[in-house]
């Protein structure tokens, strides 16, 4: 597993070229934690919603109208949980319900 192998990375404040190897090693560790948290959230969402599309779960699941959150437990292991999506505040509901103008006429597209 990558998390086990990254512990074997030898740390030096600066490399032979004068570059900050300690900073790179710490960045590598943080990137691996972020990648693991992202994967745990993706695995927890057993549906297709928005940009998250799964071949094995192509439809929406009403019971998964939640926000997934991943954090560390007391032992430092990543845990994923969910919280219901809060309702849209009344002052924004009209904006949410308004039809979208998807016309590209007169717009700069890059």
Key descriptive features of the protein:
single chain, 110 residues, two-stranded antiparallel ribbon, 3 helices
Can you characterise this structure?
The protein contains 3 helices and 2 strands; from the N terminus they run ααββα. The longest helix has 24 residues, at 21-44. The protein has helices spanning 2-6, 21-44, 90-97; strands at 66-72, 78-84. β1 (66-72) and β2 (78-84) form a beta hairpin. Strands 1-2 form a two-stranded antiparallel sheet. The two termini are 41 Å apart. With 110 residues, it is of the alpha+beta class. Helices cover 34% and strands 13% of the residues.
Number of domains: 1
Terminal-residue CA separation: 41 Å
H/E topology pattern: HHEEH
Q: Helical residue percent?
A: 25-40%
Q: Return the average pLDDT rounded to an integer.
A: 85
What value does the Rg take, in angstroms? 21 Å
* Number of separate helices: 3
Shape: extended
Largest sheet: 2 strands, antiparallel
User: What is the total tally of β strands?
Assistant: 2
> What would you call the structural class?
alpha+beta
Low-confidence stretches are none
Strand percentage lies at: 5-15%
Strand order of the largest sheet: 1-2
Please provide a brief summary of the model.
This protein has 110 residues and is α+β, with helices and mostly antiparallel strands. Helices cover 34% and strands 13% of the residues.
């Amino acid at each position: 597993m990558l998390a086990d192998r990254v512990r074997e990375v030898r740390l030096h404040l600066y490399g032979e070229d004068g570059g900050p190897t300690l900073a790179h090693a710490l960045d590598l560790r943080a990137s691996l934690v972020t990648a693991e948290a992202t994967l745990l959230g993706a695995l927890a969402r057993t549906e297709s919603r928005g940009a998250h599309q799964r071949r094995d779960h192509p439809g929406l699941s009403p019971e998964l109208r939640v926000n997934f959150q991943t954090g560390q437990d007391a032992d430092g292991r990543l845990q994923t949980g969910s919280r219901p999506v809060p309702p849209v505040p009344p002052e924004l509901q009209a904006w949410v319900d308004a039809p979208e103008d998807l016309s590209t006429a007169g717009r700069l597209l890059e």
